[in-house]
Specification:
The complex is a heterodimer of chains A (276) and B (319).
Chain A (H helix, E strand, L loop, with lengths): L1 H9 L9 E12 L6 E12 L3 E5 L6 H8 L7 E6 L4 H6 L3 E4 L11 H12 L3 H14 L15 H14 L4 E5 L7 H18 L2 E6 L2 H7 L2 E6 L4 E7 L14 H17 L5
Parallel strand pairs in A: 3-7, 3-8, 5-6, 6-7
Antiparallel strand pairs in A: 1-2, 1-4, 8-9
Chain B lengths: L2 H8 L5 H6 L5 H7 L2 H34 L5 H8 L10 H13 L9 H32 L1 H14 L4 H14 L5 H24 L4 H9 L4 H36 L8 H10 L3 H32 L5
Helix pairs in contact in B: 4-5, 6-14, 7-8, 7-10, 7-12, 7-13, 9-10, 10-12, 12-14, 13-14
Chain lengths: 276, 319
């Protein structure tokens, strides 16, 4: 917490103008396993404001995905307080408050691209015409016009992941949860999708939570970086990333960028013990 | 390959490798690479063994007849006679083909002597049993997947039901159903169902449970209801499993229908042909009914395969 406060006082926050969307206090999550209980999240405190692009970064097993799954009500915390849009995560999920992009595209192989995007809309009971309109609009947003009738296996991995982003966007959530969505992609595709995602965020003003273990990716995308460490999973630093909103890939060579990246790396190093 | 030869081939003169890689067309090549030759080889081997077997098995009866009636005989006569007996122990393939020709093509379909008529009687029971079994199998699977109590209480019974020999339980079913006034096709269909629901239940339970954690989590993020998860995820995911089970089920449902005809003393159906054939020592009739049954089984499985191809193609399967 001490570190967090220093981080905030050091820079002028670019974000934080909106009202809080997610408030987490003293959150703990312990998985019961046959050998010993695993402390996946330990005393997590975090506030995410409207319009923020927040990255969770940390080594494998630091609980970044778990924290996001708690927000999405896919895991239940052992104790502590969490609210999403002023509701419990369960209520927020039942209100379809968020769109979730998984590590893998998770497209249903028996549905065409268009039908995959319509899936959440069918479940929400949205009219057929509206479904088609939203599918068209969001496919255009991820540059996939003309692929409506293709089945997932006919698309490359990067294209499949873009379909899954379009599917999450079609719900029109104010909150977008993305769990290492580009983790399995090559660097060129990843750079390209990062740029697309950033312009999408800029255009729509959504709140995005993004899990990654790539330092450049987190600095490039975020307005706020949450550095986490494993065993037990806890937040060790929250860094405001006050780069301009409309960044281009070249920004990764500027001193400001490298300075923030350096701070993230320092944080990761401090939190990472190699004793075990 | 040395660099020099690569250069030569670059100038348009084919090297050894090029020639070897050029596909040759022609009858022999097609036979060699296709399925025809392997299948033909097996067919010829079976026919050879069959004719030899017919001579071996039928010769004893023939020799004792020759000796009783003081007929002069030699090896050649023995062989030709053993391939043309009226009631041989093992009839020769051409005798079965003749019988099939006589009963399938030379008889009116409605005639009691037409094998087509008997096949239809069995097929109708098979299809009805397959339908019952399919419904029962799917219903059980849906229950088992959704209700934990059913998973624990039904599954052991489903498995136990298949450990009872069908030959033992078939007469019981016929007697019990006969007492409540059900005769004819229905009891046979029930026996058929008893056999064929099992692979469908097993396959569908596996299929309905096949969606992975990610696919289920996705539905959860949409806060989809149980019935939405069922229709939009579990059912489509289970279709390939369903067809695999249906192929097994349709084949054993035919077996069930034939077995069902044996204890009823049925007068019509392939089972009845087998039964009457064995009463009167009409081995040729038994064998032709057997061949007919296996052709029918192949046809039914083939039909299911065709439907499977069409359905899966519409569900985006790679062709």
């Amino acid at each position: 917490m001490q570190q967090t406060q220093t981080a905030h006082s050091g820079v002028i926050p670019m974000s934080g103008t909106g009202k809080p969307v997610i408030e987490i206090e003293k959150l703990n999550l312990i998985f019961e396993t046959p050998d010993a209980p695993v402390h996946a999240l330990c005393d997590v405190d975090l506030t995410i404001n409207e319009g923020d692009f927040v990255s969770f970064i940390g080594p494998s097993g630091c609980g970044k995905t778990t924290l996001m799954r708690v927000i999405a009500d896919l895991e239940t915390p052992t104790d502590g307080h969490i609210s999403v849009n002023g509701m419990t995560p369960q209520q927020a999920r039942e209100n379809r408050a968020y769109g979730y992009v998984f590590q893998a595209p998770a497209l249903y192989p028996w549905r065409t691209v268009q039908k995959n995007i319509q899936l959440p809309l069918e479940i929400m009971g949205i009219s057929k015409q509206e479904q088609l309109e939203r599918a068209k609009k969001n496919l255009a947003l991820v540059n996939l016009e003309g692929f409506e009738k293709k089945f997932p296996w006919q698309l490359s991995g990067g294209m499949q992941q873009r379909v899954s982003i379009a599917r999450a966007l079609s719900v029109e959530p104010d909150l977008l949860l993305m769990d290492e969505p580009f983790g399995a992609l090559d660097e060129i595709t990843r750079d390209h999708l990062n740029e697309q995602l950033l312009s999408l965020w800029d255009k729509t003003g959504k709140t995005v939570i993004f899990v990654t273990h790539s330092i450049p990716e987190s600095v490039f995308l975020s307005s706020k970086i949450v550095v986490m460490s494993p065993r037990p999973g806890k937040i060790i630093d929250v860094i405001d990333c006050n780069l301009p909103r409309d960044r281009k890939l070249d920004i990764r060579e500027t001193p400001e960028f490298l300075e923030i990246a350096h701070r993230v790396r320092e944080g990761l190093r401090a939190g990472h013990s190699y004793d075990d | 390959m040395p660099i020099g030869s690569g250069k030569v081939s670059g100038q348009g003169i084919p090297t050894m490798t090029d020639v070897a890689l050029t596909p040759t067309t022609g009858l022999w090549s097609k036979l060699y690479h296709g399925k025809t030759l392997p299948i033909l080889t097996v067919v010829i081997a079976i026919l050879f063994a069959w004719y030899a077997g017919a001579v071996y098995l039928n010769s004893d009866t023939l020799i004792s007849t020759y000796e009783r009636t003081n007929v002069e005989w030699d090896g050649k006569k023995l062989i030709t006679d053993s391939w043309s007996m009226d009631r041989p122990i093992l009839p020769a393939p051409h005798q079965i083909v003749e019988e099939l020709n006589k009963t399938v093509f030379q008889k009116n379909i409605t005639s009691k002597r037409s094998l087509i008529y008997h096949s239809w009687v069995t097929t109708s029971a098979t299809l009805l049993g397959f339908l019952f079994g399919g419904l029962l199998g799917v219903l059980l699977a849906v229950g088992i997947v959704h209700v934990q109590t059913l998973d624990r209480s039904l599954m052991p019974w489903v498995i136990a039901s298949q450990t009872i020999p069908i030959l033992a339980i078939a007469p019981m079913i016929v007697v019990v159903l006969g007492n409540v006034g059900l005769t004819g096709t229905i009891p046979k269909a029930i026996i058929s169902m008893y056999l064929c629901f099992f692979p469908i239940t097993i396959g569908m339970v596996k299929g309905l449970r096949s969606p992975d954690v990610l696919q289920m989590d996705l539905m959860r993020t949409y806060s989809a209801s149980t019935s939405q998860i069922f229709w939009k995820l579990r059912v489509p995911a289970s279709i390939p499993f369903l067809f695999a089970s249906l192929k097994v089920a349709v084949a054993i449902s035919l077996v069930g229908a034939i077995v069902g005809e044996l204890p009823t003393g049925a007068v019509a159906g392939l089972g009845a042909r087998l039964l009457s054939g064995s009463y009167y020592g009409q081995t040729i009739q038994i064998w032709s009914a057997l061949v007919m049954a296996s052709l029918l089984g192949m046809l039914l499985v083939y039909i299911v395969t065709v439907i499977e191809k069409v359905v899966l193609k519409n569900m985006g399967a790679r062709s």
